[in-house]
Amino acid sequence: MISPLFRWILNTFTRSDENQDKIMLNLVLFGPPGSGKGTQAKKLTEKYNLIHISTGDLFRYEMSNNTPLGEKAKAYMAKGELVPDEVTIGMLENKVNKHLDAKGFIFDGFPRNTVQAEALDKFLTSKGTQVSGLVCLDVDDEEIIKRILERGKTSGRADDNDESIIRNRIDVYNQETAPVFEFYKEQEKAQLVHGIGSIDEIFNRLCDAINSNLVA
Ligand code: ADP
Known about the structure:
9 helices; binds adenosine-5'-diphosphate; 57% helix
């Protein structure tokens, strides 16, 4: 028999971090393809000392190394379709698990549908934390197409060079991804930020949104 006092001492000193509430800043950086998430994520990562996780970058890394995961993602990415959830969610969770001591994360390109959003909430809850908020870069379709075609000249990304694939990515965004904004709006965690202007102007708008509502 373990005495209650001994059990209390044992629990107190051996409790794993996973059972404690962690104060992290976990941002979902949201918006259509080409809205500037990657550019802004880099700046936000530095300012708030977070880990940047871009599912698109992770897939491209896997593809460039010809891994089985990269092979799975390839055909979907080439068409501008979403990579299946089970592949994407597993990859995301692996990446988060490697940085559990971080101050927080910027999720860029994830979640891209409500199944992924539910999976992220459940996963972060299991780690004793949660999504702090979502900030969405608001940019209209014509501006996006212009920007992506411009980026395509140097990005080396096949999906940036073909207007019909870009339009498909925008359709997928409107049909499958946009509901994620509503998902977090219902939790009172979603904010819209005007996404046209200079990089620094947009960065300042994002910081204002984060500082006024998400940072204690
Ligand atoms: P962009 O935001 O400019 O479209 P990304 O690098 O975020 O670029 O995504 C490129 C492609 O990678 C997407 O079109 C999709 O095929 C795949 N992808 C990225 N993130 C996800 C995700 N969360 N779920 C499914 N597929 C994804």
